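Retro notes (design track)

What went well: tokenization of the new backbones is finally stable.
What didn't: we kept losing track of which sequence belonged to which structure.
Fix going forward: every design gets posted as structure first, then sequence, in one message. First example under the new rule, 413 residues:
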């Protein structure tokens, strides 16, 4: 093998301009590979962070209640005492023990109890349907970064205070300090018209999370106020969790569902379009990376075929000295591997530098780049290994062609 390596190196050095150009071509292919990986992986990370940064990764809710039956007809059909949609809001009574159980699980970062319900928010004659989330003040920034999303006022979740989205505030025509009327839409109290179904709240803060559905329809109030509003004496309507690895949320949700007998859902269940988009993006990136590797293979193969044609007499002399076909094949495959290795290493370094250059060039004043590129996601090792494998594989056909050369014909020609 040492002899073949010396011959391969000599061939490359003797035609150093061609070898340098060929290595540059491999480098360009690797730069394209790493750039696409950095861009697409960075975009995937940003999209995932944008979505999971403002929502719970796992949600635990009471299992839906089946309508109660009080008698059966002669034909076996049950008559319902409670129709679906008219029963009292289900709550989690033993939520404290469930919170402790969930917090002990590996990978769970935070657990937040909430009272959630539908209501109407009114000011004057303007009335809008809203989704009310009742949380404790200490948990205000656990699920969504509410404090840094406040655009007017402050994050105040004291009793009698309410924090609303910017789109909702604009549609309702309210600002910080205005009083609004909040009326529950699905509580036992609302059906009996007791005082607990309605509350006068003061707008203390207006937020913009950047998610239209939240900014348009979600309001936050104190947990105690939400319990009174929705007539939840004890317990909570849901428990939301944040986990360390968002892609492990489905597995954690399944474990929690089995352990607590609650209905467990995860953020991926609620974002099927995102999964489809990420898969399509992945496929596109893989196609582009495959084409970059194909260009490397074509370049190496064509250059080595040209080298075989130019060195027919040299190969004939080597064969006449007793050098076997296997040694000739190994010589040209080593050339391909050397070209691929040097070109891939240079390309990986250039790709890393190019990704950082784009990152700094696209950085905005807010500290967020306009191009969602992540140099750390460039798959550099994979690019180097694949470029070496492709270059070595591309050298097989030229090597076999060189091994088939007849020594006598080659020397005579």
């Amino acid at each position: 093998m040492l002899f073949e390596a010396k011959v391969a190196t000599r061939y490359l050095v003797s035609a150093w301009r061609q070898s340098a150009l060929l290595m540059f071509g491999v480098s360009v292919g690797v730069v394209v590979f790493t750039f696409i990986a950095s861009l697409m992986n960075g975009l995937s990370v940003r999209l995932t962070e944008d979505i999971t940064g403002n929502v719970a990764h796992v949600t635990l809710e009471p299992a839906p209640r089946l309508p109660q039956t009080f008698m059966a007809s002669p034909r076996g059909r049950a008559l319902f005492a409670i129709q679906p949609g008219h029963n009292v809001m289900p709550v989690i009574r033993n939520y404290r023990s469930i919170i402790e159980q969930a917090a002990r699980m590996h990978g769970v970062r935070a657990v937040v109890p909430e009272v959630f319900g539908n209501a109407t928010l009114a000011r004057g004659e303007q009335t809008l349907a809203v989704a009310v989330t009742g949380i404790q003040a200490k948990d205000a920034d656990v699920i969504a970064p509410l404090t840094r999303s406040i655009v007017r006022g402050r994050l105040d979740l004291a009793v009698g205070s309410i924090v609303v989205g910017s789109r909702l505030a604009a549609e309702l025509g309210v600002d910080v300090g205005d009083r609004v009327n909040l009326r529950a839409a699905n509580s036992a109290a609302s059906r009996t018209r007791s005082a607990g179904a309605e509350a006068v709240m003061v707008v203390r803060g207006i937020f913009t999370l950047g998610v239209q559905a939240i900014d348009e329809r979600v309001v936050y109030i104190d947990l105690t106020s939400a319990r009174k509003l929705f007539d939840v004496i004890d317990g909570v309507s849901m428990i939301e969790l944040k986990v360390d690895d968002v892609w492990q949320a489905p597995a954690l949700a399944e474990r929690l569902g089995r352990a607590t007998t609650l209905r467990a859902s995860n953020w991926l269940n609620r974002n099927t379009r995102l999964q489809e988009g990420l898969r399509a993006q992945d496929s596109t990136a893989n196609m582009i990376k495959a084409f970059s590797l194909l260009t490397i293979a074509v370049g190496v193969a064509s250059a080595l075929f040209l080298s075989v044609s130019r060195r027919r007499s040299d190969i004939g002399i080597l064969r006449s000295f007793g050098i076997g076909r296997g040694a000739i094949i190994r010589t040209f495959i080593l050339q391909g591997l050397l070209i691929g290795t040097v070109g891939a290493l240079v390309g990986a370094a250039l790709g890393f530098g190019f990704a950082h250059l784009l990152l700094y060039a696209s950085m905005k004043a807010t500290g967020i780049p306009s191009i969602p590129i992540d140099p750390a996601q460039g798959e550099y090792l994979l690019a180097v290994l694949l470029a070496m494998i492709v270059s070595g594989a591309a050298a097989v056909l030229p090597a076999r062609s060189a091994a088939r050369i007849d020594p006598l014909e080659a020397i005579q020609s």
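Added context from the reviewer: The chain has two domains: 2-51+274-412, 58-67+87-267.
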